[in-house]
Amino acid sequence: MAENGKIERSTRVYSKSILFGNVTRRLDTSVEPEAFTHEFTVFVRGFDNQDLSYLLKSVEVLLHDSMDRPHRVLRKPPFETSCMCFAESEIAVTLNFVDEAMCAPVTIRFVCFLHPQVSTIRPDFFVNQLADTLIFPFPPVQFERILLGGPTSKVTNSELDKRMREHSKRANRSGHEDPSLGFCSMADLIAMEKADGAAMGKTIVRLTKELETKKTKG
């Protein structure tokens, strides 16, 4: 904060691209036909498996009310959580930044798809991946330092990555490739944007209401 009470802000606009969505595994219901049909894992991470803990203090996941523990708070990476289900539903993911006094939380909503929407194929393993670019217009200088400080590491100790590697090995042994499997790289998303401008969303990250009020008064 500047001496005159005004917020000392950067003269630059920053952006951070993230990946989020769900990875679904179809369950064997031959033994218990009335059991859950799928297990899904909700995830939030950076491109190329970047660890976002330098930027995010926690991730809140709001599932359908019928699911076990519908409100979950993930306080450390990897930011992912799993649940059983019968059907597709909407999920809300709230990103809480490490400096909550500077930036207000951002909530992103998406549908947890269990299989491809443009195909009749029902794979055993399916990646429903979306992308968004968080825009930080003229952030406070203190938060600017956080943005410039990372990422410094990749996601580790991820059960989701472990399951995906196991599935990939099984697919390779069977001689069948699974086109629905895998996370996008930055190059993939750039190609998607060129082909379709709506491939990646853009979300503006706002200052907290308290800082906005101080800025107005100043």
UniProtKB/TrEMBL annotation:
Signal peptide (residue range): none
Keywords: Nucleus, Transcription, Transcription regulation
Ranges that cross the membrane: none
Protein name: YEATS domain-containing protein
GO cellular component: nucleus
Domain YEATS: 8-150
Taxonomic lineage from the root: Eukaryota, Metamonada, Carpediemonas-like organisms, Carpediemonas
Gene3D superfamilies, A to Z: YEATS domain
GO biological process: regulation of DNA-templated transcription
Region named Disordered: 157-178
Annotated localization: Nucleus
